């Protein structure tokens, strides 16, 4: 059984390491807001990396004074700076560059809000470190940008993925699994929309702590599968999925609040972001089911010992998920 212990320890360590390095994967955020003709209010947020600002900088065109901002100040989560720039020509059609981004493993979200039309959100990456500010926001571009942002957010949200993974492990019936995933989708879509449109407001830290607790709850349910008594998640998984899905939706809304929604296409951008989240979630479920099917085929080759493998796998997965989620829970409660 030593290999089981080693696997659990490795997974818990990996989860803890992922949490410790999470800031390095946080996106930067640059907000350029035109306050009067030729004058722009700039907000620049850089992720924290081991107590220091990430080595990236936002540069406006040379015709702007100043074209870079003051030294950033730490606000408890990231490094931020504010300044007002006066530009000789309008920024629409001009290039914005994030220097140093090519050496990082994260993105920068660029929010541009000129006076004459609604704002737009662009995404800069280590491969594409600069962007031309559009004269007018393209509906198609906004739609695909927010789909990509939603898809990327769910695949980088390890707590959300572990919750979905635990549901897949807990529900053997395909019919019941589809019902639970559908309930989870409906629930988080409701709270995401309500929070993003300003009809609901819940502090972020408690939500993040309860999301971690939801993963712990499912881990315990996985470990109870061999017991004589079954838990609520086994008897009525859609109820558990829907209930916790409401909380996960608030977590998605927190991420979307940092990105911002375009003033002219709020509903469309919200729909696209949620569509991206669902696409990422379904992709993750498809990968899990494919790996699970392949694993079952391989296990059958072991003959008599194959009957013990599912029980051992449940124990390993249950303790691993529970250990990582408990670490998150304690860390997030401490963050209060």
Distance between the first and last residues' Cα: 38 Å
Helix content: 40-55%
What general form does the structure show?
elongated
Q: Which structural class best describes the helix and strand composition?
A: alpha+beta
What number of structural domains do the residues give? 2
What is the count of DSSP helices, taking H or I runs of 4+ residues? 10
| Largest sheet composition | 8 strands, mixed
Question: What does the average pLDDT come to?
Answer: 81
Q: How many β strands by DSSP?
A: 11
Content of β-strand: 15-25%
Task: Give your account of this protein's structure.
The chain folds into two domains: about 110 residues, no CATH class; about 180 residues, no CATH class. The chain has ten helices and eleven strands. Strands 1, 2, 3, 5, 6, 7, 9 and 10 form an eight-stranded mixed beta sheet that branches. Strands 4-8-11 form a three-stranded antiparallel beta sheet, with no helix packed on it. Strand 1 and strand 2 form a beta hairpin. Helix 1 packs parallel to helix 10 and helix 6 runs antiparallel to helix 8. The longest helix is centred in the last third of the chain and has 34 residues. The chain is elongated, with a radius of gyration of 23 Å.
């Amino acid at each position: 059984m030593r290999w089981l212990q080693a696997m659990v320890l490795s997974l818990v360590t990996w989860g803890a390491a992922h949490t410790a390095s999470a800031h390095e994967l946080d996106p930067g955020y640059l907000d350029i807001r035109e306050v009067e003709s030729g004058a722009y209010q700039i907000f620049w947020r850089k992720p924290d990396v081991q107590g220091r600002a990430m080595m990236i900088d936002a540069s406006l065109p040379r015709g702007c004074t100043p074209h870079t901002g003051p030294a950033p100040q730490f606000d408890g989560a990231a490094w931020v700076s504010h300044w007002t720039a006066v530009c000789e020509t309008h920024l629409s059609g001009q290039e914005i560059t994030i220097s140093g981004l090519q050496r990082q493993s994260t993105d920068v979200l660029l929010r541009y809000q000129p006076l004459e039309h609604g704002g737009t959100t662009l995404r800069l990456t280590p491969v594409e470190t600069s962007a031309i500010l559009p004269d007018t926001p393209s509906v198609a571009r906004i739609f695909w940008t927010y789909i990509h942002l939603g898809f990327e957010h769910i695949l980088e949200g390890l707590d959300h993925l572990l919750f979905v993974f635990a549901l897949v492990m807990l529900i053997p019936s395909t019919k019941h699994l589809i019902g639970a995933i559908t309930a989870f989708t409906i629930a988080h879509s409701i709270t995401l929309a309500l929070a993003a449109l300003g009809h609901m407001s819940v502090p972020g830290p408690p939500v993040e702590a309860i999301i971690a607790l939801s993963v712990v709850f499912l881990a315990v349910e996985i470990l109870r599968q061999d017991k004589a008594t079954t838990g609520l998640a086994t008897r009525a998984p859609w109820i558990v999925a829907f209930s916790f899905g409401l909380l996960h939706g608030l977590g998605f809304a927190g991420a979307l609040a940092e990105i911002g929604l375009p003033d002219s296409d709020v509903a469309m951008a919200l729909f696209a972001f949620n569509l991206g989240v669902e696409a990422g979630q379904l992709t993750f479920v498809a990968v899990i089911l494919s790996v699970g099917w392949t694993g079952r085929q391989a296990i059958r080759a072991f003959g008599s010992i194959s009957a013990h493998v599912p029980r051992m796998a449940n124990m390993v997965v249950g303790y691993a998920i529970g250990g990582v989620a408990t670490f998150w829970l304690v860390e997030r409660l401490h963050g209060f």
